[in-house]
Write a structure and sequence with these properties.
The chain has 206 residues and is an alpha+beta fold. The protein has one domain: B-lactam Antibiotic, Isopenicillin N Synthase, Chain (Jelly Rolls), CATH 2.60.120.330. It is built from five helices and twelve strands. The strands form four sheets. It has a four-stranded antiparallel β-sheet. A four-stranded antiparallel β-sheet has the order 2-7-4-5, with no helix packed on it. A two-stranded antiparallel ribbon has the order 9-11. The longest helix is centred in the last third of the chain and has 8 residues. Bound molecules: 2-oxoglutaric acid (AKG) and fe (ii) ion (FE2). The site of 2-oxoglutaric acid has 12 residues, from β1, β3, β7 and β8. One of its GO terms (molecular function) is oxidoreductase activity. Belongs to the iron/ascorbate-dependent oxidoreductase family. This is Gibberellin 2-beta-dioxygenase 2.
Length: 206
């Protein structure tokens, strides 16, 4: 990825994940068929008919870490949202090994060049779905700041001022704020420099 972005120090991203103290984690999600769920678990009234039951198993969100690598069994359910209101299914394929997602931290590390994709998992009404997910994360004290080569910008007010889309933060700082918010919130916005300069029209030049 660093090579693709023409960042000379090509290990800049992999070093963060390969750190001995990396906060990377592995999660296994189990989605029983929703017909087996009790109304109590779904937060529905007991007389709600099964056809009106929401089928979202894992609510929409972006992953906070750097990189996500996911594989599921052959039950469909994963969906990504390339734009608000649009959900595109990612079909499981017996020979396709993994889905790879950019996380919030990689979006910050690339100064917004790579986008953290919003996704969710739907439950299947008749078949159990399982997914296994590796989240590549930095160490808690790692400072998240994009390489200087990616800070080439112009703003109408300050045409020559280098512009960071996000203020720098440590991974532990991000986790603390991210996990205090709701899953579906755009948590990276808390670190956006555009919020504090909202009257400043900014365009990023590639
Ligand atoms: O189970 C899935 O397909 C998605 C899981 C997920 O998004 C997550 O664990 O962060
Ligand atoms: Fe996720």
């Amino acid at each position: 990825m660093a090579q693709g972005l023409k960042v000379p120090q090509t290990s800049v991203y992999s070093n963060l994940i390969m750190d001995l103290h990396s906060d990377s984690l592995f999660r296994i999600n189990h989605y029983p068929p929703f017909t087996n769920w009790t109304p109590h678990l779904l937060g529905q009234d007991s007389d709600t008919s099964p056809t009106t039951i929401s089928k979202v198993g894992f609510g929409e969100h972006t992953d906070p870490q750097i990189l996500t690598i996911l594989r599921s069994n052959d039950a469909p359910g994963l969906q990504i949202s390339p734009q608000r209101g649009l959900w595109v299914p990612v079909s499981p394929h017996p020979n396709t090994a993994f889905s790879v997602f950019v996380g919030d931290t990689l979006q910050a590390l690339t100064n917004g060049r790579f986008k953290s994709v919003r996704h969710r998992a739907m439950v299947n009404s008749c078949k159990t779905r399982m997914s296994m997910v590796y989240f590549g994360a930095p160490s808690p004290h790692a400072r998240i700041c994009c390489p200087s080569e990616l800070v080439t910008t112009t703003t109408t007010k300050a045409p020559h001022k280098p512009y960071h889309l996000y203020r720098s933060f440590t991974w532990s700082e991000y986790k603390k704020i991210a996990y205090s918010m709701r899953l579906g919130d755009t948590r990276l916005d808390q670190f956006s420099t555009l919020q504090s300069e909202n009257s400043d029209e900014t365009t990023i030049t590639e």
